[in-house]
Amino acid sequence: MTMLVTRGLTKTYAAGTGCLDISLEIKPGQIFGLLGPNGAGKSTFVKMAIGLLRPDAGSGTLLGKPIGHPESRRGLGYLPELFRFQDWLTGEEVLRYHAGLYGKTLGETRSPAMASRIRDVLAMTGLGKRGQDRVRQYSKGMQQRLGLACALLMNPELVILDEPSSALDPIGRYEVRQLLERLRAEGKTVFLNTHLLEDVEAVCDEVAFLHLGRLRAVGTMRELLHAG
Ligand code: ADP
Ligand code: ADP
């Protein structure tokens, strides 16, 4: 099954910005990078693709279901570009709350299995020792790591990450790239919004360049570098 297919997704804002006629196909098992400068339209595209923002035109399928279908969310993990946690909660509590949002009952969110999964995703994102601390004691980078942990919690088939390392230093960015490679090795599919060429060079199997709301090129890094 193709993870994500979009056909002509378009959203135009008053100023003439947004996303124009975006058609992409994300195959399973790859790390796909959507690369573009700030304001290119990456977040707008992703929000349309997962049904958070209604397109002016275009359509698509997410995890085999029409975009916006509630069931397509089941296998999806999403890290928004901007997120805010209830900062009086601990990292573990945020994750438990998140599991509740994804349909787990109160009992299930408090089960030993969930506690173990929460420990796993905290460890995967480099927060292994901080799960009992309140989010208000986290740095911006740690909050971003917690967002990543939330996106991975339900063991999604497809992970869509909107600038997952924007608040991280070079070592943190390297760790995120390693995590993406680990997800790919587990057979997951990753869609990455980034403005960092180093990210797509280091880990992306396929990349699309977005500029001023339009796709400029799509292909493997090798194809794009030799395109002349
Ligand atoms: P990126 O994620 O690549 O930084 P965005 O998708 O956030 O880009 O934004 C693309 C363009 O659309 C920008 O020019 C931005 O200012 C504009 N834009 C995004 N959201 C809105 C909105 N809700 N209303 C008006 N303009 C918007
Ligand atoms: P923003 O700050 O960019 O508006 P939010 O944090 O409000 O983003 O989240 C936007 C939407 O994304 C919400 O409807 C929320 O349920 C959904 N969402 C947040 N985290 C995830 C996740 N890990 N997986 C799937 N959907 C998520």
TrEMBL record:
Record's keyword terms, sorted: ATP-binding, Nucleotide-binding, Transport
A single GO molecular function term of this UniProt record: ATP binding
Domain of life: Bacteria
Keyword match Coiled coil: no
ABC transporter domain residues: 4-228
Keyword Plastid: no
Family of this protein: Belongs to the ABC transporter superfamily.
Protein name: ABC transporter ATP-binding protein
Organism: Paenibacillus artemisiicola
Lineage of producing organism: Bacteria, Bacillati, Bacillota, Bacilli, Bacillales
Residues of the whole record sequence present: 1 to 228 of 331
